[in-house]
Design brief:
Elements: H1 7-15, H2 18-37, H3 41-61, H4 64-81, H5 88-103
Length: 104
């Protein structure tokens, strides 16, 4: 079972500030980059799938003011997962900056 489908996890996720959510997504993207650089494509795909799951959960909570940006993030993640996005490092850095913001 995907732990992201667990109602308790979803409730905790929705309670997090957006910056923390994006930081967690960024951690999955960083893992995907490391796996990709090491030629471990199955592990990369699993990390990207987790990132997509988390982005989808974030979209559920999204307010009108941030929906466009969240949809674009989700779109870029999907493109990377399908092999159509070449700059995963910038996407990871974008999300990780929010994680640093959340940690203060």
């Amino acid at each position: 079972m995907n732990p992201h489908n667990d109602p308790a996890f979803q409730a905790r996720w929705q309670a997090m500030p957006l910056a923390m959510q994006l930081g967690n997504i960024g951690a999955e993207l960083r893992r995907a980059l490391v796996f990709e650089q090491g030629g471990m494509l199955q592990q990369r795909d699993r990390a990207l799938d987790r990132g997509l799951d988390l982005a989808s959960l974030t979209l559920r909570k999204g307010s009108a003011g941030r929906l466009r940006e969240l949809c674009r993030l989700h779109e870029c993640l999907g493109a990377w997962r399908m092999g159509q996005w070449l700059d995963g490092a910038s996407l990871a850095a974008y999300c990780e900056a929010y994680g640093r913001l959340a940690r203060g």
